[in-house]
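mind reviewing this stuff:

——
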Amino acid sequence: MHTQEDPTAWLASALVGREDGFVELRLHRKRQRSVAVEKGRVDAAMSTEHSGVGVRVLEGGTFGFASTGSLEIEAIRRAIDDARSAARASAGLRRARIENLAPAQLARGRFEVPGYDELEGRSLEELLQLVLSTEARARASSGSVDSASCAYTEVLEEKAIVTTDGARAWLRHVRPELRVGAIARDGAQLQRGSRSVGATGGWECLFRAAGADQLADEAARIAVDRLGAGYPEGGRKRVLLSPALVGLLTHEAIGHTVEADFVQSGSCAAGKLGQRVASELVTLCDSGASEYTDGAGGTLPVDDEGVFAGRTAIIEQGVLKNYLHNRESAAHFGVAPTGNGRAWEYQNEPLIRMRNTYIEPGTSTFEQLLEGIEDGYLLDGPANGQADANGEFMFGTQEAYHVKNGVVGPLLRGVNLSGRAFDVLASVDGVGRDFRWDLGSGHCGKGQPAKVDAGGPWVRCEVLLGGRG
C-alpha cells in the first residue's frame, strides 16, 4: 500500500482533471499465507502478496472497467482512460442503460477490524507448528484413524476506495481459517470426519467456539464413530438443524435468491416483496457487522463501492422485506444500496455478494426444541451441498442422530436433506435462543470468490431426508 498516511488522498490525486461523470478507484493490497500438512508431511508453506488499482467509469449508460498492477499515478490515470474507452465501446450493446446510481451513505475515514496487527506479527514457523501439532493430534487420537490433514490460511487486506461522488474510505482486516480432516479405516471401509473454522479478526475470534485441539478431536471422533454407524430412515421428517446447517440453508438456498442481480434474472424471490415466505418465527438478515458475537468471517464495515455495509432484514417475521443491492440495482428498484458490492481482487469488478447471513435467535432452549420431536432427527456438520435459483437445495451432513420423544439416539451416518427453501422456512415451529457463526471457512463462488459467513440458532423444521429403507 502507498506509504502516505492517508492513501485515499493520494488515490484521489489521480482524479485531478479527470472527473467527468462517475469514476471509482479501488486500491487493493492482499497478502496471503498458507500452510498444509498431511500424514505428518508438509505439503505447502507459502506466502504471496500483490496489489493494484481497479477502476470503474460510468459513461454512456454503462460501466467500463480497467485495472493496473502499478501504483504510479500516471498508470492509474491511463487505467481511467482505458475504463472510459471500454464504457464508450460497449454502450451501444447494452439493452438497459444505467441512468444513475442510487444515492448512498458513502464512507469517509479509516475503518479497521481488530486482529490485523496480531496475526501479521505471527511468524510462518509458528503457523506451521500449529498445523503440525493439530494434524498429529488427530492422527494419534485413535488406532482406527488411518490418516489426517490440517491446513491454515490467512488473508490480510488493505483497501482504499475513492469515488467522484464522495467516498473516501481506507480499511484493513484479516481473515484466518483452520481446517482439520481425519480418515478412519475398518478393513476396506473408510469414513471421513472434518471440522473447520474461519473468522474476521485475530486468534481469539478464530478459536472463539473451539480450540485447535478440540477441532482435531472432533474430526477424528466423527470419522471413527461413522465406521459403526447405521443409516437413518428416509422420508419427510421433522428435524433439528444445527447453526452450521441453518447457515448453509440461509446462505445457499435463500441468500443467493435475494441478490438483486439474480432477482432481475428471475429467481424464486422475484415479485415476492411484502409476501409471507416463512414462519412468523423466522427473521433472516445479512449484515456487514458480526451480529451477536464477534468474528464472523464475512465482516466488513464498508463495501467495495464505498457504501457502509449495514444490516439488511431480508425476511422479517416471515415476510420478505428486502433484496440485497449494489448501487446499480438499488437505482433500478428505487431503494437505498445495502452495501453488498464486493470484489475479490483489484482486477475484479464489484458484484452483489452476501456478507454474514443468518437467522435471528428466538426464545426456545435446546431442550425445548428436542422435546418437540416425537420421531425425527438432529442434524449437524455440513458436508457438501448445492442450491438453485428456485430455492431448491440438497445438502449433505456428517452427523445424524435419531430423536424419539425428545431423546437423542446414537450417531447415524450423515444423510442428504433436500427441499424448497421457502417451504422449509414455512415449516419452522421452533427457533433456539443460542446463536453461533459456523460457516466462515472456505469461499462462496459467484464468478469470483468471496469470504462470507452464515449461522444462527438451532432451528426445528421439516425437510426431506435421503436414507435407507
Q: What stands out?
A: The two ends are 60 Å apart (CA to CA). The chain is about 20% helix and 40% strand.
